[in-house]
Amino acid sequence: MTIKAGDVIPSVTLKYLTDAGMQEISTDTLFKGRKVVLFAVPGAFTPVCSARHLPGFVQHAEDFKAKGVAQIVCLAVNDPFVMKAWGQDQKVGDAVFLLPDGNGALTRELGLELDASGHGLGTRAQRFALVAEDGVVTSLAVDKPGTFELTSAEAILKAV
After folding, report:
1. What value does the CA radius of gyration of the chain take, rounded to a whole number of Å?
2. For the whole model, what pTM was predicted?
C-alpha cells in the first residue's frame, strides 16, 4: 500500500557513507521534530536524475530553507558508495542529503517501488517527492514512469 498524506513515515534504518566511514541513520531521527522534503530518483547518474531532478533541489535549497524546510533528502535504491560519488560529481555539498536505500527497504515500506528490470536495473524507487512534518506526510507527488512533471523542485516548493 502506498503512503499518503496523514501517514507516518515508516521506521527504517539506512546506511550512508561519509569521509569518516559508513554511518547509519533511522528515519525516526531524520524526520523527528522538523519539516523535511524527501524526493526519490530511480537511480544515481541516470540522465533525468542527474541533469534535472537533483540539480533543481540543489539550486533551490535556500528557497526551501526560507519556507522552513530543515533538510532536503534525495533517496535512491543505490549503494552508499554510488550515492557518495554521485554527490561529489553533482557538487551537492550540504544542500541535499543523499540517502542510499541500498536494499530498497524504505522504498518498499513507502509502497513506491518501480520494477525497472526491463532496463536491467531491478527494483528501484518511483520518481516521487513528499513533504513531512515531524514524521507525518503532509503532501506526496508521484510522477508516472518516464515522466518528470510533479516532483521537480519548483513543483514541490509550491507544496511546502
Report:
1. 14
2. 0.94
Q: Write the pLDDT tens digit of every residue in 82-95.
A: 999 999 999 999 99
Cell matching residue 73: 533528502
Secondary structure letter of residue 8 according to DSSP:
B
Q: Which residues are catalytic?
A: 49
Contact 6/134 with Cβ under 8 angstroms? no
Contact 137, 6 (CB under 8 A): yes
Domain boundaries, the chain: 13-159
pLDDT in tens, 1-27: 799 999 999 999 999 999 999 999 999
Q: Specify burial of residue 132 (Cβ count, 10 A radius: 0-12, 13-18, 19+).
A: buried
CATH of domain 13-159: 3.40.30.10
CB neighbour list of residue 8: distance below 8 Å, 6 or more residues apart: 135, 136, 137
**Size of the chain in residues:** 160
